[in-house]
């Protein structure tokens, strides 16, 4: 890991109720360009909180996040600028129900990046084509299946041409038969070299696609290594018992 | 049979006396137009300020915790605005609209001689308090994921409100808003207290001039009723059109 990591997290803490609840309790971590980092851990371990802190959807109580050379936790930083470069995909899709698929994808580029409508739609349709949903461009989210919704959510984030994609349990709300189609899109994205941070319970995905796996528990990173190290040679007891329960 | 015929003839005479003689129907028309002008412009004021108040109140409620963490001028300002909004809503909702109208007419805007304008201001700022609470409820009912999706795409807070949350809020609150508009239309019937010739006042004038109570008051009642029925119809068409998008 280099001194100028793409994302550098130092002593990140998130406490609730004046320190009574410690969702994050001092996370240190570096993520480089092109890495696919999968975060695993039991529920309540702080992995989602950590991911959501990376684009300040959760405001940390302490610590520093350097993204692309800027400390985004500094109060004077314009977080909106940096969020444009960090795409996020949510467990519950969070598509805008009052907009068509196409409008979902173009509203941010048109409003924020001041792209022309034609340009934004062209890009959106290209992306939709890639995920096999071009024919659903004029549909509303309620007309889509869960897997389709999540694929739209992924390409909606991609329309902003982000430098990193954050996935917060992207397949947890899906019916089992739809998990594959979403993971396929994510695999393709990883193969193209997109920097990705993924919180997931899909261990198969972690093993196959991740360049690095982070195991979190009790608000800190317990173990950090390659998929082989984590899954085949777990060191800490917590990870061993976690893997024992899920594999 | 004979008596029914007599009754009809009598009613016809009363009708002519009330509406045809001296062109008294014109009073009703003038009163009706004034009632509509006051209602429409008051609802415009009410919607505008109501949405602003609701945005302030719900922004504070939703972000109190994270704003406190980030601190700074924004938090102090929003807290002050929230306080003002709360006091405003409490005061307006605690005073009968007819008292407010008289305060505007005889005290605050005593130098203003456009009576209709005074009524528009009085009813508008009264309605704003109610619209604010309707919208606040609407905004709070929108899933937080919608805010997060907007923010994660790079929309700033105000843009997220304008482009993503408010359109959904308006749709969700349409039936309640219609209620407020209907209530406002009927509330304008107290405008006669400050000598404004609204629909109710017109009916009352005819009653005073002709010593006939039944005919003019029933006419006024029917005009209100028909107006409300038309309004309801228009709103249900709008609502259906908006809903169609989603299915």
Fourth-level CATH superfamily of chain B: MetI-like
Number of helices of chain B: 9
**Cα-atom radius of gyration of chain B:** 23 Å
In helices, the fraction of residues of chain A equals 25-40%
CATH architecture of chain B: Orthogonal Bundle
What count of domains describes the coordinates of chain B? 1
From the N-terminal CA to the C-terminal CA of chain B, the straight-line distance is 58 Å
Mean pLDDT of chain B: 92
Oligomer: heterodimer
Beta-strand share of residues of chain A = 15-25%
Low-confidence stretches of chain B: none
Q: Span between N and C termini of chain A?
A: 30 Å
Shape type of chain A:
globular
User: Biggest interface, and residues per chain?
Assistant: A-B, 32 and 25 residues
The CATH topology annotation of chain B reads as: MetI-like fold
SSE order of chain B, as H and E?
HHHHHHHHH
Strands side by side in the biggest sheet of chain A: 6-7-8-3-9-10
Summarize the structure.
In chain A, 36% of the residues lie in helices and 24% in strands.
Structure explained in plain terms:
The complex is a heterodimer of chains A (247) and B (247). In chain A, the strands form two sheets. Chain A has a six-stranded mixed sheet, with helices on both faces. Chain A has a four-stranded antiparallel sheet with strand order 2-1-4-5, covered by helices on one side. The longest helix of chain A has 16 residues. Chain A has nine helices and ten strands. Chain A has 247 residues and is of the alpha/beta class. Chain B is an all-alpha fold and 247 residues long. Chain B has one domain: MetI-like fold (Orthogonal Bundle), CATH 1.10.3720.10. Chain B is 85% helix and 0% strand. In chain B, helix 2 runs antiparallel to helix 7. The model of chain B has no long low-confidence stretch (mean pLDDT 92). Chains A and B meet through helix 2, strand 6, helix 3 and helix 5 of A and helix 2, helix 6 and helix 7 of B.
